Amino acid sequence: MSDRIVVIGGGPAGLEAAAMAGRLGAPVLIVEKRSHLGGAPIAESYAALTHGLQSAEELMGKMMAAATDLDRVEVRTESEVVAMSGTGGNFTVTISSNGSEETVDAGAIVLATGFQHFDPGRETQQYGYYEFPDVITIQDAEGMLKEETFVTPSTGKPPERVAFIQCVGSRDRQIGNEYCSKVCCGISSKQAIEVRQQVPDARVFIFYIDMRMYGYWENEIYWPAQEQHRVNYVKGIVTEVLAKNGRLIIRGEDTTMGRPMEVPMDVVVLAVGMEPSPGTRHMADILGIATNKYGFVETVHDVLDTVTTAVAGVYVCGSATGPADLDDTISSAGSAGAKAVAYLRSGAEVPA
Ligand SMILES: Cc1cc2nc3c(=O)[nH]c(=O)nc-3n(C[C@H](O)[C@H](O)[C@H](O)COP(=O)(O)OP(=O)(O)OC[C@H]3O[C@@H](n4cnc5c(N)ncnc54)[C@H](O)[C@@H]3O)c2cc1C
Ligand code: SF4
Hints:
Structural class: alpha/beta
Radius of gyration: 22 Å
Bound molecules: flavin-adenine dinucleotide, iron/sulfur cluster
Number of domains: 2
Distance between the termini: 24 Å
Strand content: 25-35%
Strand order of the largest sheet: 11-17-12-13-14-15-16
Largest sheet: 7 strands, mixed
Order of helices and strands: EHEHEEHEEEEEEEHEHEHEEEEEHEH
CATH topology of the largest domain: FAD/NAD(P)-binding domain
Oligomer: single chain
């Protein structure tokens, strides 16, 4: 029986699971395919994170230190798990790093391979993401906001009018993603505040089906966006983004007023949803664990246990299990790290 825990993915979920298992005394190996830890918030240059609006770099720096400062936690970056054999307590994991392969033993495995952003060119091309430089995504916006250079990409000038379009690639039966991605309403509202702070003369609009804020995001972001920062929320459906006279035009229906709308914008930000990362889909195959129809990993008890998979000794956490904000991610990751250690010590799953 091996006492090592292999954590696949070094984003917020993997870091928290590794720190938890390491603090509980288990040797941990984090396998991360990118050249750096920190997951999407670092790879996509997120600006401030909700809630609390703290710098993503600082928060992720703290998480990385909490895991990697522990002597028991080792990290392999630019590495991927390419094979797994054996059973709970006695897994053999093959890791490929820069062309060479190594085999390690592991008692338990935590899968934390996260999400990818919905590709707005996929069946939502009516928004012109690949056609118009001034149509961007929320992760593109994060990068500009982080550098405090929120401009109209085609001109390099501060925009006068900015629109956010919600639910791009989520809550959409036609493309098969019926689920809500949970974070995009909060993130768009946070970004709308940041745009107003960085470009005070800009008018900012959020076009939504219905706004879904949960927990503290309601009073920390949603109401201040309207009351202090004068962000305009428009209940409506945007069907198309066009270009006219060098400007973008948003076409759709204002559903509150019950009338068609056609409004000019300088920048359009698409609030793209979350889908399972290719790593999540691929690792689920290698580990032999079930996924749901969207490709997110399934756990055995859903509500009562959000981290235990049907393969004994294999746990999953964070956005590999479905759309998740950082609160959700950290909670499930701590649980996965602790349950993996409990499994190794007792040789049995912790009952739900
Ligand atoms: C634009 C945007 C802004 C956001 N802002 C906020 C916010 O302000 N507040 C908030 O609470 N949440 C926010 N979120 C949500 C937040 O990003 C997620 O909750 C969080 O990143 C999930 O962490 P994770 O570790 O599960 O996944 P990820 O961050 O996706 O990390 C997964 C890691 O696994 C690695 N990986 C993938 N495949 C493999 C493989 N095969 N082998 C090895 N490694 C692999 C990846 O490289 C990555 O490092 C935001 C999301 C978006 C889209
Ligand atoms: S969080 Fe908001 S924008 Fe994102 S899918 Fe849900 S309702 Fe749509």
